[in-house]
Amino acid sequence: MVDLDAEGFDIIHCVDEKDFQPHPCRVSKLMLDPDNFIISAAKLKTHDLVGITLSLKNIVVGAPIKDKGAGFGPAAGGGKSDKRLTHGGGTHGINFNLFALSPILHPHLAVIDGFEGMEGTGPVNGTPVDHKVCVASMDWLAADRVAAELMGVDVSKIGYLTYCMQAGDRGEGDLSKIEILGPAVKDHAKTYKLPSTWDQITSWQKPMAPA
Known about the structure:
This protein has one domain. The longest helix is centred in the middle third of the chain and has 11 residues, at 91-101. α4 packs parallel to α6 (159-167). The protein is an alpha+beta fold and 211 residues long. The strands form two sheets. It has a four-stranded mixed beta sheet with strand order 4-3-5-6. Strands 1-2 form a two-stranded antiparallel sheet. It has helices spanning 29-32, 55-60, 83-86, 91-101, 140-150, 159-167, 198-201, and strands spanning 9-15, 22-28, 39-47, 51-53, 109-119, 127-137.
């Protein structure tokens, strides 16, 4: 076991939708090292900012450095967390950052645990879903695409995954072209309750309102 926050960092840049300027973000050197094999051990979960959080978001948002004492509430000690920078200041910003950072921050093996998923107000305050499924792939985009299908979520409503599929160079996002080794996805899909913030989550599809 290692503490990513104690193993050194490099600087990448994230966009904030409030000014669309590049903001320096400290990211673990271990996560950026091309010689390291990155495994994302994620969960099937809804998310109140981007709709669903799976293998890619698990890595991109897990990589930034958090100083000792960073956090919220009484336990917070005033330390700085660069994790918030990846969130881009809003719906447009976070979806763009997840897409833009995916070439350098992504898993080489995606393992998505859906034995018990989460629906509703994820990724923290949702409710459990008894699902008993698992997705694993060396193609993280294919894994996230299949996971979205298992959750009954229209992937065209998920901004960052749509961007990655449109780019055409991040992996396979066409469900008809993904080879499934195991039971048919349709036989194990459930319809997860979406966050109450769904209208805001899907606002990435519209131009940002003028400031």
